[in-house]
Amino acid sequence: MKSLYSRLVIACAVLLSVLLTGLGIVLGQFFPLFAEDSDLLLQRQYWFFLILTLAIAFVLSLFIATRMMIQYARPIDDMTKIATQIAHGDYLARVQTSELEYDNDLAKAINKIASNLQEMSTMQAMEKERLKTLIESMGSGLLMFGRGGTVNLLNEVFEKTFGLSKNEVVGKTFKDIGLPIAIENLIEDVFMKEQVRAEQVKIDSSDHQSYMSVYGAPVIGIHGNWLGIVVVIHDITELVRLEEVRKDFVANVSHELRTPVTSIKGFTETLLDGAMDEPVILKEFLEIIQKESDRLHLLIDDLLELSGIEREGFSLTYAAVNVKEMIDDAMRIVSRGMEQKKMRIVAEVPEDLIIEADAGRLIQVMVNLLSNAINYSKEKTTVTVTVTSFMNEVVMTVRDQGIGIEQSELPRLFERFYRVDRARSRDSGGTGLGLAIVKHLVEIHGGRVEVESKLGVGTTFCIHLPILHNK
Ligand SMILES: Nc1ncnc2c1ncn2[C@@H]1O[C@H](COP(=O)(O)OP(=O)(O)O)[C@@H](O)[C@H]1O
Ligand SMILES: [Mg+2]
């Protein structure tokens, strides 16, 4: 399609040729005034001038039109094309100013507009991308309802939490999505009252229970107009579980402390009520009181130990540790208990195996495992300690021929205060914290603990540790 400018130029050219033709005709009219000869000559001259003028007019107007086309119309055509491209969103389009024969402000202005638009659209795309990344990586589920009450935005966390996909949710109202009833009620409330609401909801599904922190708020635009509502959902199941663990722990500690304290209190009162006058009873009761206070002492020591290990900032003192020497030290510590039960210990440990670890903490681990092996075994049985190394790993096993542990008990064995046989553990002076401490210490070393057991046959604990400490 020809532009307005091209048409204008062609119109100018036609007008010019008409003017010049007119001039020719007029000139042709006047020439006979100067002619002296016959009419024929006059007519010939008349036609000759007419055709000549016409030809000159045509050539002249063609020349001028072409010049005008090149100089004015074509650049304007080009600029129109570029402007149209820009209008259609192609902000990279530019007018080639170097090809223009004169300093064209319009071309420069068009290019400036294009580059401004390009910059703005880049910024907008970046902003959009940033917002999208933020929404997708916020770690909470996000759901937005537009003014019409239907979903217009949700993120991946939300999709995963409720097993929904964008396609099946966008455009639906909150009642049609199939959200848990407690969340539906909260959304309805925010819609009705246009006020912020935050709540913790418990969600029961067929296989498990979860807890969500739900926050709903109306979205108000800069001019104060209502744009919809936003709902942010955060899974706090793990937090609630940790809170339960903490509560259980406090309850367990109180219970564990109460038992020896009650005992000490009871025996002291009985003594004060007159029993202390009987020397035999006095001795017996004082021995019980001593045993109970020893237990209390052990319990408090283990509790302090555990809280120390769990505290942030706890660190190990790494050094080169000779595994055999470390195990010998641990065996020396438990030797009395071993002798009392007439038990035997067999150690198969390479002489020169050196690992990078915290020697004191490893002794603690081994003492705990060996004490358990002694406490939960019959007299005259054997405990075997084996150490092997492979690649960057050392495996230390403690195997006993003791009472063994039922398979179903194994997963909970490393929990604090978990004991298979409470009475037996108490009798042997156990606090129920030994294996929890072992697990923590081994994991801080970058290792892991495994346990295998057969009821009535025996138990094997395996400690896997890296030989070199990865800083
Ligand atoms: N070698 C073992 N043989 C049998 N049972 C064991 C053995 N080691 C641990 N257990 C069981 O695991 C429980 C937890 O052990 P632990 O944390 O050391 O606590 P504690 O020995 O103070 O009771 C023990 O009460 C016991 O029931
Ligand atoms: Mg123990």
Please provide a written account of the structure.
This protein is α+β, with helices and mostly antiparallel strands. It contains twelve helices and twelve strands. A five-stranded antiparallel β-sheet has the order 2-1-5-4-3, sandwiched between helices. Strands 7-9-10-12-11 form a five-stranded mixed β-sheet, with helices on one face. It is elongated. Magnesium ion binds next to α10.
The DSSP helix count reads 12
Mean pLDDT: 88
CATH superfamily of the largest domain: Histidine kinase-like ATPase, C-terminal domain
Task: Give the helix level as a range of percent.
Answer: 40-55%
Number of domains: 4
- Give the helices and strands as they follow along the chain: HHHEEHHHEEEHHEHEEHEEHHEE
How does the overall form come out from the CA principal axes? elongated
Q: Please give the radius of gyration in angstroms.
A: 48 Å
* Main β-sheet description: 5 strands, antiparallel
Q: In short, what is this structure?
A:
This protein is of the alpha+beta class and 471 residues long.
Keyword list:
471 residues, Beta-Lactamase, Helix Hairpins, 4 domains, 5-stranded mixed beta sheet, 18% strand, binds adenosine-5'-diphosphate, binds magnesium ion
What's the layout of helices and strands?
Layout: H1 4-34, H2 39-87, H3 105-137, E1 141-145, E2 151-154, H4 156-162, H5 166-169, H6 181-193, E3 197-204, E4 209-220, E5 226-235, H7 237-272, H8 279-310, E6 319-322, H9 323-340, E7 344-348, E8 354-357, H10 359-375, E9 382-390, E10 393-399, H11 422-427, H12 434-444, E11 448-454, E12 458-466
Helix pairs in contact: 1-2, 2-3, 7-8, 8-12, 9-10, 10-12
Bound molecules: adenosine-5'-diphosphate and magnesium ion.
